[in-house]
């Protein structure tokens, strides 16, 4: 396949747009000013027609969404047009169409951060182009010998379902699963949890009511480090500093204790580490990643992002931590393509993440966090009764005037 097609046709949905444009080119005469120029004349008309086709579709779906709030906008046309501008090296237009998409209310959190990253890259390329360090060549339509189509290369071994004979058969027991999603200030050992959401549900494939949510919990936490703007936008945190609050340790530990195993999606290892710094007891819990432990690519899904997978399975895109924890809960209960088993059953038979390694730095960090958390609770209790909190030899005493 040609270099042009490799760049612009890697999104399968654009094939339809290209076919429409090619048909219209055959029906329309060449502009008199371009007559006799040959292929370049057609390529200019092709670009203009493709751009107008995509823009007209975008305008129409935006108009329909304004009339009906339940009408969901499709992101593919925005990205197709952005890809077109990128191949044409019109980086300012690429950034503009992506910014137009980013302003939509329906955009999901994990998509939003990816869109802003791409906008930044497009603007950097535009600056390089304007400065003259990037040679801009005009996009032309080149011939292609290979038939246009989508080919998926997969391996049957990647989707082979393995059964662990040492476990009780999946259908013969109730499974209590805790899905987790949290927002944090970063990925390093000294970063902190800013918001956490937990959804505990029970699943039994043999029951008429296969699943039921047992409990949920969501809370913000005061962080010493500032929350990055992208994280605040991704998880819809209204105030980046978050309101001052304390995590309910008893509630969180009880939910983890009731669960047979835990499931996260994005950066499950980092999420487990940062949560375990506050609650070391949960580090030994069997923990899975619904993003990495399920072979989404081999199962036919090109994107592993939670919102994309949720929409592909008929669910709404998730943004807040609680919405994302609920989305993981619903996603793992879905059936695999052309199979009579759920993703949850696949996770059940897999080996959980390797045990967390406690370095001296992590142990020290965890001790400081748990100590500060206990003293914060003591201070709150002291304020409620009009007294003060005192720490002595690792113990907390609340005093008040008699």
How are the SSEs placed, and which strands pair?
Elements: H1 3-8, H2 14-27, H3 39-67, H4 76-87, H5 91-102, H6 109-130, H7 156-159, E1 175-184, E2 193-203, E3 211-220, H8 229-234, H9 249-258, E4 261-264, H10 268-278, E5 287-289, H11 306-312, H12 321-331, H13 343-349, H14 360-384, E6 388-392, E7 395-399
Parallel strand pairs: 1-4, 4-5
Antiparallel strand pairs: 1-2, 2-3, 6-7
Task: Write a compact overview of the structure shown.
The protein is α/β, with parallel strands linked by helices.
Describe the protein in words.
Helix 4 (76-87) runs antiparallel to helix 5 (91-102), helix 5 runs antiparallel to helix 6 and helix 11 crosses helix 12. The protein has helices spanning 3-8, 14-27, 39-67, 76-87, 91-102, 109-130, 156-159, 229-234, 249-258, 268-278, 306-312, 321-331, 343-349, 360-384; strands at residues 175-184, 193-203, 211-220, 261-264, 287-289, 388-392, 395-399. It starts with a helix and ends with a strand. The chain is built from 14 helices and seven strands. It folds into three domains: 3-130, no CATH class; 172-349, Nucleotidyltransferase, domain 5; 360-399. Helices cover 44% and strands 12% of the residues. It has a five-stranded mixed β-sheet with strand order 3-2-1-4-5. It has a two-stranded antiparallel sheet with strand order 6-7. Strand 4 (261-264), helix 10 (268-278) and strand 5 (287-289) form a beta-alpha-beta unit. The protein is of the alpha/beta class and 402 residues long.
């Amino acid at each position: 396949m040609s270099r042009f097609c490799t760049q612009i046709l890697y999104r399968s949905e654009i094939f339809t747009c290209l076919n429409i444009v090619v048909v219209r080119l055959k029906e329309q005469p060449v502009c008199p000013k371009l007559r006799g120029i040959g292929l370049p004349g057609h390529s200019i008309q092709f670009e203009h027609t493709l751009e107008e086709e995509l823009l007209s579709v975008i305008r129409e779906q935006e108009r329909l969404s304004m009339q009906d709030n339940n009408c969901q906008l499709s992101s593919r046309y925005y990205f197709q047009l952005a890809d077109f501008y990128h191949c044409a090296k019109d980086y300012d237009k690429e950034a503009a169409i992506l910014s137009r998409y980013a302003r939509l209310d329906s955009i999901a959190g994990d998509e939003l951060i990816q869109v802003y990253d791409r906008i930044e890259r497009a603007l950097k390329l535009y600056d390089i182009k304007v400065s003259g360090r990037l040679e801009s060549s005009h996009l032309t339509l080149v011939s292609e010998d290979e038939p246009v189509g989508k080919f998926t290369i997969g391996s049957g071994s990647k989707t082979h379902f393995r059964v662990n004979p040492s476990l009780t058969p999946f259908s013969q027991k109730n499974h209590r699963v805790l899905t987790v999603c949290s927002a944090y200030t970063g990925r390093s050992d000294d970063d902190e949890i800013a918001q956490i959401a937990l959804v505990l549900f029970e699943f039994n494939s043999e029951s008429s009511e296969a699943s039921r949510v047992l409990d949920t919990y969501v809370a913000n936490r005061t962080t010493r480090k500032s929350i990055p703007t992208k994280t605040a936008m991704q998880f819809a945190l209204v105030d980046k500093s978050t309101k001052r609050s304390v995590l309910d340790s008893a509630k969180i530990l009880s939910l983890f204790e009731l669960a047979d195993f835990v499931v996260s999606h994005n950066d499950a290892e980092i999420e487990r580490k940062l949560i375990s710094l506050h609650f070391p007891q949960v580090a030994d819990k069997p923990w899975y990643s619904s993003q990495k432990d399920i072979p989404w690519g081999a199962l036919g899904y090109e994107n592993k992002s939670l919102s994309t997978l949720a929409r592909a399975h008929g669910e709404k895109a998730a943004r807040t931590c609680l919405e994302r924890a609920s989305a993981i809960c619903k996603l793992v209960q879905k059936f695999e393509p052309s199979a009579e088993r759920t993703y949850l059953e696949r996770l059940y038979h897999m080996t959980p993440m390797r045990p967390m390694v406690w370095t001296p730095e992590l142990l020290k960090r965890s001790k400081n966090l748990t100590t500060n958390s206990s003293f914060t609770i003591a201070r709150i209790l002291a304020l409620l009764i009009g007294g003060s909190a005192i720490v002595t030899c690792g113990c907390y005493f609340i005093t008040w005037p008699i």
